[in-house]
Structures are given as structure tokens and as C-alpha cells.
Design goal:
Chain lengths: 623, 623
């Protein structure tokens, strides 16, 4: 960023995977900037470059040259990969950093975004550099035969079919490229041509009900070249999946329109990603898409009506390979889109991708893996057996149906503590508070419970300070009184608390049903994986105190960020990972929550706040 | 046909494969009608029903009940198939008859059209009757998994992929069809769904430069349900292939338009065929298309520029399987179109289909197989080795570039004899003469040569009757003088004769080059196969007398009609035939005529009229 006089005053620093951004003056270290924007990076030695606990990786942008301390701390390879000590490094331009979990002071997170893949690329689509002899009267072989025979002769590849657009363009392109090019092959099919020595790109997409994330990958080394997210444009036709399905059932002629919305959204993402790295969408020859079952169906153009009606049957569960052009995606016209398998009507391929990325599906367990969202999917893995449920947790944790709820955007209260009867909060981008997002809502519920404003049953007590009656219901004022008018105060109402109780009871009940179906107790759970955007930012301790999650030691919880996107990236570059996804999905036993024994009883009990265990539908206190 | 008073006076009778049509009064037998319209059907016993030499098959329409003679002549199965004695049968409605070669008095023809296939259907696409259990809460399996597992369980079919349109329609169709349907499978792919017990249809297309023929086939028994031909709509953009290619080179933006013309033409044919048998184009799940290389390329949308430039390289030789929707064909959306392989820039898949249909490619030989057209392809088969050339014979034999030439349509002179200095001719549909078509042109050249009006060098003599000078050139008057004004006379001009000499020399040279390349003499040729519409109707004797064909006994010639269409039909119903076509095409060695030794010398010598042999570029008289 340049000041008015043209001299550089401060740079913008992106911290991944937390997705926080802050301004950093050129005289400030990256560590100082992190602390300023509220990101907890270790600094055991106090920023003297001795403890090496503040390692970060510079993903983009220029920074100061390595100091002697850093030359000690890293190998030349690590320095080449951008690894630095945050306390020793000063920005020279805007930067993007990846903060690895071991450098964070907060609860351990697996960094899924921004971190390069660890899987060995094993590409379903490959590029073969090929040079051809020109035809002559004595060798008037057809252009395609020339191509097929070169692949066979030089690479021992036997291709049977050639994509129609390659057939149509081959003769002209070979002649204009001087009889050399890259031949792009998938299975036994020639799907495209690329100019000599152009990078082969791939696309991974995580299709959420609310957000869509896309990653542009260099297929030859598996590196993420660019990543970008947008709000799902279908939100205009309904915030949650059920309302979108209802919309389609009511006006079936709209189904094409609703599909077009998401396809155009992804195409916009593709264009932005390509512009960012100076590539052409025609260089993208493979794609993997994950999403919940309904988003999967809406994207592919499958019917969704039966998803909303018992027995909630998907049109398609198995993994699909669909031509990009049949889906309307503007990437290389011969390319395919691989869609990871779904499990059930409300357990989709994003959950499968999460299990794939975290690797927990192969663990001995018992491990509980949770994707928290409007719909929350939970799997329990035990001795290679996977059982899954889907819980209708509702939009409360995304700020929906909450009076002053909002999405995680600038000005949202994302952390909240009540100490000495005083409210301390932190907002996104340190902006003046305008509402409260999921993690803040969770903190608030926890703090109000701990401070006795709300009882275990969820009732707001009348006789507390900051509690008032307004518009016929009781509410607790988080921000207001002094500096705001009543109607723009930020409050938590009795109705909000009830909404949150239902949401957290749904999740806890799902976990409980899985434990009972597997004859497990809570204490046997070795690890709880929490995935998804909301899951990344919550304070797990708050979730434990309100009884949303089983009462276990904090170190058994792992927040893994957008593991679904990570799973999509893994599947993009590895055929083995695609096969693993299919096999793990086939192994999942789905339980319809409503049909589980003790379901109603458990649901009622888990709506109570506090730490407790559930046994046979009864609550037992802990601590 | 009804007279003005509403009583039936005469019916229209179509005779196949000659494609002639005539009126038949209800009191006339089919034999009488045939003789009346000039079709030579045997009648050794004089029409008394004793000799059984006038067998015909009624393909469509109603006729009188079988007489006792016919009950003697045929088995009940044969009668059920429509077999009758022409002398014993009277029409009750308009009819379509197939006249088998053994019933014809003219030179033996293999009837390709109208005759049912002899190959055992061995379908690349199959329909599986399937019934499914309905989903329930205890069995909420995805609809596609249900489908795939039923195929696997009941038929031991392992399908990996499902066509996108099937995926999109499956859930609704299964529910509306009460959980039973036919699943249409191709290789390991589900390509469509058909209602329970609907016939599976196929389409065979012969794509000629001038004519397009299409056949609708019942895939389960290989029977032709309907056949129809149209003029190629691309004629509007150029009568011959080179002018169409030139058109595209000059305005590349027109290539889509020229492709659209042929695709729309075929779609019209598909609709007509389906209407004729009361079927739906969506029931057509497989198609085979053959044509010359340029038509193949224009249809598929391949570039043609390089076809017109030395070394005349096709974009594609090998057999192709292209999705019907990628070509724009309006048949079942998941279906594929199989295109038989091409051989070279000017030897296309129609020639391959002809070799396939006649079976000569497997013969010991030597056999010469000729497709006569604007471009004439000739193959010589000897001990399993096939050598082919392409001859630019030009449009003369289709009536092009000939002053009074016309296509084989009503009023065209199709036969001509000169006896006692008098001209006898026969026109199509016995209409007043308006021009002269290919077979008539050939006869005329022969008769003028025999009667001495034209000398062996092709010069029209000045001193003969009916020879005159008109508009600065010499011409022979075929029709005129008495009954017409000069400008509407039908004549053969000196320029016409030169055009015909070039055409027939091209063909004869092609044969000669093949013989020399194989160290064969003309006399060793065991059989000459003549295919194509023009080849079906020519008088082979005339062709011998003008030296267009080698001077061999008449019984070594076989006219096989539209063998390319027959080959397409065979490939449609038989995977083995498709494989045979690929293997025979790969076996053909193509010789570029211009590069052959003695080419120029041979071409000059073969432009002479008369019976002769060629040895080392020299002409030797025979007879």
C-alpha cells in the first residue's frame, strides 16, 4: 500500500489458514503484525530468533533477506520454500503467510489451506510431449493415426478414443504448432492438446451450501497456485438446502436456473484463479468437486425432490466422472470432472473428502469426525468400521435464525468473555461490532451459562444485570446501553438461546447415537476431529462447557479447517486417493437418526447446558 | 389411387432394389406390371404358376390371397414373410416389392436394399429388462446404485459409467415407470433407459456426395423396418466434394453451416423413418455412418482443407465412436455413432463398407471391386492383400458436365440402342424424354461407337446422319429434329464425348495400376464387383465395349447395388463386423494414382474406345 506521497507506509499481510488479514508497517516484524491482528504465534524467546518457535512460510510476496539466526534455523531448501522466523522477517510487499499448527499458541489446527500437499502426485490425467514427422506422399497417414502411433511408440500408451474437439482441432493445431505439442491423456482417451511445455493445471472445488472454495493446482507437482472462495450464488434462492429444494419442487422450470447460478459462480472462480496466475482456463484438464449431496445433485443437474422426502434417497452415490462440457464448466473441453462419492441423502462427498484428507478412516479409533454446518455430519471410526449420521443442526452456528447473528465478516463479534461482570469481545478486523458470528455465539452461550445468567435448562434469569425485556421477550445485552440506541443494540434473546440449544443438541445426539450403535462410551473416544469453517474458529472449550461436544480432555480435539477442500485436492492429483474415497464411502454405514433407539430421550437431555455424559438416554454430571 | 368416382383404378407398385415404380391395374398381375414398367422378371412358364421363377417378396401393401400354385411353391413361413409368385399375385393396395436376383432376367444383381441381413445380430448395444425393489428407510440405496447392482446381479453386467442424461432422468423415470424399465448398455456404460418392452432401434446411414440413404433397423432381429433416401442438402454449396472444400477454405466461417446442412438432412430422414413405423427417435440407441472421407469429415466437423492439398491426408482414418449429441443427431441422447474407418483422403468408409458387405475382402481373388461415382474407388483383392486407388472420374456418369445430362429421375433416358439407323430408348417412368442419365450416356457412347458415328479416338464423324454442327461444335442428335425445336433437342456433343473419355479412362487406368502393382493380368481377374447407384443400373456390356472395364466375359461381373449401405447395416448389428471393417481397412495399401509408373501413358491409351488390353502402357486389341 502506498501513502499519498507515494512512499510505502504499510503492507497487507494475509495469515492462513485462519484467513485473517492485517496491516504491517515496514518497520514491524511479521510476528509483531500477527500479535497486532490478534493471531497467537509462539514467541517463547521474546522475538530474539533463538527459540525457533515462530516458524511461518511465506506463500506470496517479498520479505527481508534471511538473518544469521534464520540461516541457522533452516536448511537452504526450507528457505527456498519460504520458511522464515516471524520475529526476524520484515515485509517488503503485501504478503501471504502460512502459519503451521506448531507455531500457533491456540488449540492445534491442521493447516489445510495454503499448505502444499503431501501425497505423491499420481495423475489420472497426464501430458505427453510429442513431436511428429510431417506427412508426405509416401507417408500420407491420417493425422490421428500419427498421434496415436507416436504415443504408442514413444510412451507405450494405447489410446482407443479421441475426444471430438481434439479430432476437430488436431489437423490445424499440429500444423500451426510445427508438428509438436503435448498430448493430454486420460485412461485410454486423448482428451486434449496443449502447446509444447505448457503447465498442466487442475481444479479442486468444495461446494458448500453457503460458500464455494476453488483451488488451482499445478498437476505436475501438486502445488496450489491460487485459491479463492465466494459465497454460493444460490443463496439468492434460499439460504439452506431444503428451501432450495422446495423452490425447485414448486417451480421445476427453475431447476436449470438454479444449476446455472452455481455453474456460473464456479466459472467466475476459474477465471479469477487463472487471471491470478496468468493461465488460460483451457489449460485445466482435470477437476474434482466435493459437496454435500444436495449441492452435488444441484451442480450435476440431478433431481433433488426425492432427497427431501423419506427415505431421502440420493439419485447418485457412487463417484462420477462427467465431462466438464456436460456440466457447463469452462475448462478444457475434453476434460472430465470427478465427483467424489456421496454416502446418503444428507451425508455428501464433502464428508467423504474430509475423512480422506484427515486419514482417520483408516485409524483404529474410536475417532469421531464432525463437519459442523447447517447440516452436521458425524462419523465414528472404529477398527476400520465407519458409521455416520446426519444432524439437522440448523443455521444458528452460521448466524442464521439468531436475532443479531451474522456470517463471519468484518465487524462480527467472534470471541467473547465475561469477566468481573464486564464483557470483553473481539470483532473481525477489529471493526466496531455490528453483529455476532458463529464462534462468538458459542462463546456467548458458554459465558452466560458460566456466569449464571442462563441456567442449565437454557432460561435467561430475570434478575441479572444487562438482562431486560424488549419486544415481549427477555434478552441479554452484549453491546449497547451506553453507546447505542435500543434497536441497534446487540443482544442474545431467549429465542436465540432456544435455537442454539436445539442446534447443539442435534450435534451431541448424533455423536451419542453413533457411540451407542458401536457400543462405545464417550471416554473411549481417542480423538474428535472438527472440520469446516465454523469448526476451525470455535473455541472448543466453549463447546464443551455448553455440552455440544462430549466432555473430554481438550487435547483429544483437533480442528482441521477446510478438510473437504484438502480432500478434493488430494483426489485431484492422485488416482489412489480417488479409489480410497470410493472404498471408504462404500464402507460407511449410514444410520437415519430418527430411527435410532433412545433418539427422542437423548435429544431432550442433550439440549441441557453443562458438562455431562449420556447413558441410555440419561444425563450424568461430570467434573 | 382412386379415380374421380372414388373407385380404385390403379395402384402404385415400387420395385426394389431397382427403385422403379409403376402403375398396376387391379386386374393385372404383379408380373404384368413389372413387364409393363420394363423390369425384367423371369417367366419361363409364361405366367402359369408352374416354373416358380418369378418369386418376389411383398415388403409393404396388401395383395390377393395365395393361389394353390403359391401354396405349393412356398412354405407357410415364406408366405408369412411375403414371398409370392409375381404371375399369381394381384395388388389390393399400393405395394412395395423386393425382386430377388434369381428372379431377374437382367445381369445378376445382389439385392442389398430391401433384403434382410444374413449376419447373426451381435449387438454393441443391448437392452436389459430390469425391475427394481423400491427404496425404503431400511434400504435407502441411491437410485443409480440400485440400477448398477440389478444389472450386475441379474445379468452379470459390470457397468462403470452412466451417461449424464440417464443420471439426470433416472430418479423420475424409475418412479413414473413403477420401478421397471429397459436399461440400454454399451460396453461398460449405461447409455439410456427405455420403457419396459419397447423395441430397440438402430440407424444405418450411407452418406454420399449426391445422395444420403438411411435405414431404420430393429436391433433385436436385424430387420430393416424402413429405408429412405434424400439428395444431399450440401449440393446447394457445391455439386462435388472439391467445390465444397473450396467453399470452406474460402469462407471458414461456413464450415459450421455446411455441417449443419447434412446433420439436419439426416435428422429429417430419422424423423421420416420413425413416423413411417410409428417409433420415436429416442428409441434409436445406436447408429453407423459410412461415407467418402470428405463427407465423413464434413459430417463429423473435421477439417477438410488438408484433404484437398497434397499429400491429401485425412484428419482421421480409424473407426470412430462419437456421441450422437456431439454430432447434433437427434436420436437417444446417450447413444454413440460409429463411423467405419477411412483408408485415405479419397478412399472412404463407404468403400470399406462395400468390401465388408460383399465379403470379397476375405476372398483369394484376384477380385476387382469398384465404386463408381464422381470419385471412383477401386480395390484389388488378392490372397488377402488389398490394394486401392482413387480415380477422379468426374461427374459425367451422374449426368454432370454433359450438355443434356441429368440425374436418374423421371424423363431421363436410361437405356439406348441404335438398330437399323434408328434410335430406340427407354426413359425413367416412361415419361417424355427430357435428358439423359448415367446409364443412358454410357449406352449412347457405346452405340455411337458400334455404329461408327464415333471413332476409337472419340471423334464424331462429320458425314453421318443425325450429326450436325450447332453452336460451334459437332453433335449427334438423340431426340429432336421431327418433334422439337433445336434448343430443346437432346444431343451428345463432341465435348460430351471427350468428358466421357476422360471419365472412363480414369476408371480403367485405376484398374490397370492395381493390376500392375500386383503383377496380375486382366485375364486373371476372377470377378469384378460393381457397386453404387450408377453401377447398379449400367449395362455392363456397354461399359466393356467402350473400354471402361477390362475385356472379360460378362459372367465375371457382379452388380451389387448400394453395398455401402448394406455394409453399414451389417456393422450396425454386429460388433464382429465392426472389428472386421477396422481390420480390413488397416490392411488396404493405398496407391496414389499420380505416382504410379506408366500412369500418364496408360491414361492416354485408356481414353480410346473399344475392347483392348493394356500391357506396360500399350494397348492390345482383343476379339
Amino acid at each position: 500500500m502506498k501513502s499519498e506521497k507515494g512512499t510505502v507506509s504499510a503492507y497487507t499481510i494475509d495469515f492462513e489458514p485462519v484467513g485473517r488479514r492485517g496491516k504491517c508497517h515496514k518497520s514491524e516484524s511479521l510476528l509483531a503484525c500477527a500479535h497486532y491482528v490478534g493471531i497467537g504465534i509462539n514467541s517463547i524467546c521474546g522475538g530474539t530468533g533463538v527459540c525457533h518457535s515462530c516458524k511461518v512460510q511465506v506463500l506470496r510476496g517479498n520479505v527481508s533477506r534471511p538473518t544469521s539466526k534464520e540461516l541457522e534455523a533452516f536448511t537452504p531448501e526450507e528457505l527456498a520454500q519460504g520458511w522464515r522466523l516471524a520475529c526476524q522477517t520484515y515485509p517488503l510487499t503485501d504478503c501471504k503467510l502460512s502459519v503451521p499448527p506448531e507455531s500457533m499458541t491456540t488449540l492445534q489446527r491442521i493447516q489445510v489451506e495454503g499448505k502444499e500437499l503431501r501425497v505423491e502426485p499420481e495423475l489420472p490425467v497426464r501430458a505427453y510431449q510429442s513431436a511428429f514427422t510431417m506427412p508426405s506422399l509416401s507417408n500420407p497417414k491420417a493425422d490421428t493415426d500419427r498421434l496415436i502411433e507416436e504415443l504408442n511408440h514413444k510412451y507405450h500408451i494405447h489410446c482407443n478414443t479421441i475426444e471430438i474437439n481434439v479430432l476437430r482441432s488436431l489437423s490445424l493445431q499440429l500444423r500451426s504448432w510445427d508438428w509438436r505439442c503435448q498430448v493430454i491423456v486420460r485412461d485410454d482417451q486423448v482428451i486434449g492438446l496443449n502447446p509444447w511445455q505448457t503447465p498442466l493445471l487442475g481444479l479442486a472445488v468444495d461446494l458448500g451450501t453457503t460458500k464455494v472454495a476453488a483451488y488451482l493446482i499445478d498437476m505436475n507437482n501438486g502445488r496450489t497456485l491460487a485459491a479463492k472462495g465466494i459465497m454460493n450464488p444460490q443463496i439468492s434462492l434460499g439460504e439452506d438446502i431444503i428451501s432450495r429444494i422446495t423452490h425447485i419442487i414448486k417451480s421445476p422450470d427453475k431447476s436449470l436456473k438454479i444449476r446455472k447460478l452455481i455453474v456460473e459462480g464456479i466459472n467466475d472462480l476459474i477465471n479469477s484463479l487463472c487471471i491470478e496466475v496468468g493461465a488460460n482456463p483451457e489449460q485445466i484438464f482435470d477437476a474434482v468437486v466435493v459437496g454435500n449431496t444436495a449441492m452435488h445433485h444441484l451442480f450435476v443437474g440431478l433431481p433433488v425432490r426425492q432427497l427431501a422426502l423419506s427415505p431421502f434417497v440420493p439419485a447418485v452415490s457412487r463417484a462420477l466422472d462427467v465431462k466438464a462440457k456436460d456440466l457447463g464448466l469452462c475448462i478444457a473441453s475434453g476434460s472430465y470432472v470427478h465427483l467424489l462419492p456421496n454416502v446418503a441423502g444428507f451425508v455428501g462427498s464433502d464428508h467423504v473428502a474430509m475423512l480422506l484428507a484427515t486419514g482417520v478412516w483408516q485409524a483404529k479409533g474410536p475417532i469421531v469426525a464432525i463437519d459442523i454446518g447447517t447440516n452436521t455430519e458425524v462419523s465414528l471410526i472404529r477398527n476400520g468400521k465407519i458409521t455416520a449420521v446426519s444432524c439437522a443442526s440448523g443455521p444458528a452456528f452460521e448466524g442464521g435464525h439468531i436475532k443479531d447473528g451474522m456470517r463471519a465478516a468484518t465487524g462480527a463479534i467472534e470471541r467473547l468473555r465475561i469477566a468481573d461482570n464486564k464483557i470483553q469481545y473481539q470483532t473481525i478486523d477489529k471493526a466496531p461490532p455490528i453483529g455476532i458470528c458463529g464462534s462468538g455465539i458459542l462463546d456467548t452461550l458458554c459465558q452466560l451459562f458460566l456466569s449464571g445468567v442462563i441456567d442449565a435448562g437454557g432460561r435467561i434469569r430475570e434478575d441479572c444485570s444487562r438482562v431486560r425485556n424488549y419486544k415481549r421477550q427477555r434478552e441479554f445485552v452484549l453491546v449497547g446501553e451506553e453507546d447505542h440506541k435500543k434497536q441497534s443494540d446487540i443482544t442474545i434473546t431467549q429465542r436465540d438461546v432456544r435455537e442454539l440449544q436445539l442446534a447443539k443438541a442435534a450435534i451431541r445426539t448424533g455423536i451419542q447415537v453413533l457411540l451407542e450403535a458401536n457400543n462405545c462410551t464417550e471416554n473411549q473416544i481417542r480423538e474428535v476431529i472438527i472440520a469446516g469453517a465454523f469448526g476451525t474458529y470455535i473455541d472448543v472449550a466453549s463447546a464443551l462447557i455448553i455440552g455440544m461436544l462430549p466432555s473430554l480432555p481438550l487435547d483429544r480435539f483437533r480442528q482441521v479447517g477446510n478438510a473437504a477442500g484438502m480432500g478434493a485436492k488430494l483426489a485431484l492429483v492422485s488416482s489412489t486417493k480417488r479409489a480410497e474415497a470410493q472404498s471408504l464411502a462404500a464402507r460407511i454405514k449410514y444410520i437415519e437418526l430418527g430411527t435410532a433407539p433412545n433418539f427422542n430421550q437423548t435429544f431432550i437431555q442433550t439440549s441441557y447446558l453443562g458438562r455431562y455424559r449420556i447413558r441410555e438416554g440419561k444425563r450424568e454430571g461430570v467434573d
